[in-house]
Specification:
- This protein has 16 helices and 11 strands.
- By secondary structure, it is α/β, with parallel strands linked by helices.
- Helix 6 links the parallel strand 3 and strand 4.
Amino acid sequence: MSKFLNMRFNLMPFWLLLCFSTPRSVCCDYEVTQVVSSYYDMEDYQYVKKFDSHIHINTYDTYFIDLVKKDNFKFLNIVDDRPFGLPMEEQEKVAISHFEDFSDQMIFATTFSVDDWENDNWLSKTISHLENSFSKGAKAVKIWKNIGMDLRDAKGNFVMVDNPRLDLILDFLSKKNIAVIGHNGEPRDCWLPLDEMTFSQNYYGSHPEYHMYLHPEFPSYWDQINARDNMLNKHPELKFIGAHLGSMEWNLEELAKRLDKYPNMDVDLSRISNLQLHTIRNREKTRNFFIKYQDRLIYATDTSINSSENPEKIKNKIHNNWIEDWRFFATDHKMNLKGHGSFRGLKLPKKVIDKIYFKNAQKKLGFS
């Protein structure tokens, strides 16, 4: 019997022999280290490569670049065709200027104007503009909410994102393998009374002209979503990123339906408060959503940097937001969502964090 036991002992794996031959506390520490190594913690924030896929830089100042370097980020600077703030042409000049100087830290997305939508030469001018932007480094094209919420045709009808006139542009982008970032519609709050909104009371209370609940003659929330879905039906090969959780921030089941149906659709995560609210309501369900769709989710904040702001103040604000987002995704620390309650972070595995914070954006946008 003694000889048999000695033979069995000699065949044991080295790590198991180590546990038999070392104090219990050392063995237990080894096992805990093996478990913890599958996850990041707060100390890892500084060392992990990260990418923020939704930034708007509206200044030639470079203080934001300093923060990006310090926090080990790269980012996508997005140009919008919006009727306020810095004009589209100037936004693009700013983007190109920063890209030329800091290509290791950033890439940029261009857009196109619809001011002369009804002109016969609109299509050729638009494609020429896009080609020029790509030659200067643009990696994606943004379609903003003015298509669907502002632009009208000669008959006064709203132009939606599935309008046949846009098909030629989308076919062109699909053939060039260029990703489209779609801000289609608004959060569902936009179509709700103020007292039924989740997070948007202050904004729409101060800007009733944008509060669609007060403008029932405008396209509805589902009009916007259905038009976006129809556009994807018509262009199944198009690389598409739905900005702000595809404007489906209120319902993960509805978002999941789209991710299942449209394999080339990803979404950026730039309504993280909604994700935290989902976590308060059902943490396991929210975490499982991230695990299941880990290849389709891209970290984003929708941060704007303007010349009128105090550089140190805005840097601190952005840094703190990035830190808290990391806490939410990478740890199970206790957190609080103002007005809604406390919750624990999702503590996603390292491989999931690496995807949503860098690899998914890299794959979709084609940067090194």
